[in-house]
Amino acid sequence: MALLQAYAWHTHYFYLQNNFGYISMLLDSMKEKLKLYLLFPFLILTIALFIHSREYTFDFSIRLSDYLYTSWLFNYDFGFMKRGLIGQILHHIQIPPTYKNIRLISIFLFLFLFYFIYLATLRVLNTLTLDKKYKYTLLFCFMLLPFTTTQLILEISRFDQIAQLLVIIFLFIITQCKKTIIPFIYLTFSIVLLTLIHEAALIIFSPLMISLFYLNYKNKKQTYALSLLTIICIILISIYGTATSNQIHALIQNYKNYRYFSEYAVRTTSLSIKENILLNLHALIQSKTYIAILIAIVVIIPFLNFIYQSFNFKKYYFFMIVTASPLLLSVIAFDYFRWISLFLFNLTILCFYLILTRIADLNLLQNNLIKYKKYIVISALIGITLGPFGITELFPHFAKINQGALSDINTATISKETLDKLNWSIHSNQ
Q: What is the DSSP letter of 39?
């Protein structure tokens, strides 16, 4: 009897010990996941917001650009016009387009995009066989580069962020779906959606997504169909999307009393391609922005060099060139550093795809990540110090490198007709 009791006690002891061991492992796993999926993103956001504040303080208030806020007011109440879909949806679901409401929606949109980029980066790093601590270091380094989190905060409420979210989701879809039907439908829907949200997004993101579709499925017919759809959408929105003088006047009269409303943002939609090119060229020369562009090129060379050394550029050079499609917009718009930032975003998505599908030489990439470890960390620290890449100004939170865009002191040679369209006399530059 005593032996039976002793045996039962030992059995019970070992059962409890095993259970406690299992519970302990479960708790450790939960702690790790909480740290990885909640604590790390929170720390990155805190650092990014600290960098975003112009005085590098702990004032985490986020203010929308008047220009970007006004874009949310466009709708179809006064006839079809480009960039009017979002405003029409808000109107349809009866959400007043006040600054407070748009700011709240924009912050939620930014948080979704930030977290999706974070998850994509985490998934990419988990594909690589690197030291755990170094993976976390790389995660922080990437998420705090000048074209990632801080740039997203700088451009909060810009329609680009909706398009970037669509691109990230598309990356997840094509790395999971073996058949083309779902990615093809999603991409078709995205192209139409981008046309109605912001016509520039077609040039910025469609070439990248179509390239990824072809790389993954090698389906030429569907790729040609998607390319043709993009071209047709660009032509149609260019012809039928330009706002008329009556639409512009009606929009201005309807929203002129709204807080932070920018009349300039409305009037720019009436400019022709020729007028945009001339304005852009004028701003480039008069503001001497070309100097800042040269500095920006020097800054991004190490990143581009690492990509060149770590991926088979000769095999995928066409697709890597396609990621530079945002730079084409430098001809008609003076958001030069926004275009560079979006080019780097596109290039990153292509690299993510090559890693997740294991098309890239992972051993070469891992060796380079280890080989250039010090340089990567130093580059990231410099990037953190510089802050967001900028829109019309390079590193606007770090130093006054260039003026950018237009100003009252550099518009003397612009035609009176163009200035009248913009009603420049009442405009204060964004």
A: I
Between CA 401 and CA 295 the distance in angstroms is 9
The token pair that represents 155 in the structure block: 């451009």
d(CA 193, CA 288): 36
Distance CA 390, CA 303 (A): 17
For residue 422, give Cα distances in angstroms to 82, 251, 278, 397, 416. 17, 14, 14, 28, 10
CA dist 167 and 179 (Å) reads 18
> 55 is written with which tokens?
């005085």
Residue appearing with tokens 């007043």: 96
Rounded to the nearest 10 degrees, how much is the dihedral formed by the CA atoms of 351, 197, 325, 205? Answer: 20
Of 109, 142, 145, 108, nearest to 123 (Cα)? Answer: 142
Residues across the chain? 430
Alpha-helix residue ranges (DSSP H) falling in 128-243: 132-143, 149-154, 160-174, 181-197, 200-217, 220-240
* Mean model confidence pLDDT for the chain: 85
pLDDT tens readout for residues 206-234? 999 999 999 999 999 999 999 999 999 99
For the chain, how far is it from start to end, CA to CA, in angstroms?
Answer: 89
User: Would the pTM of this model clear 0.85, i.e. be above it?
Assistant: yes
- Give percent of the chain above pLDDT 90: 55
Cα–Cα nearest to 394, from 287, 239, 254: 287
* Dihedral in degrees, nearest 10, Cα atoms 267, 273, 275, 277: 120
Residue with tokens 């009252």: 408
Tokens (6 digits) for 246: 């009556």
Q: Which of 140, 129, 134 is nearest to 374 (CA)?
A: 134
SS3 for 38? helix
- Residue 390: φ, ψ to 5°: 115, 175
List beta partners, residue 390. Answer: 394
Q: Measure the CA–CA gap between 83 and 6, rounded to whole angstroms.
A: 79
**Crossing angle between the packed helical segments 336-356 and 200-217, to the nearest 10 degrees:** 20
Contact 430, 67 (CB under 8 A): yes
Spatial CA neighbour of 270 closest among 74, 68, 69: 74
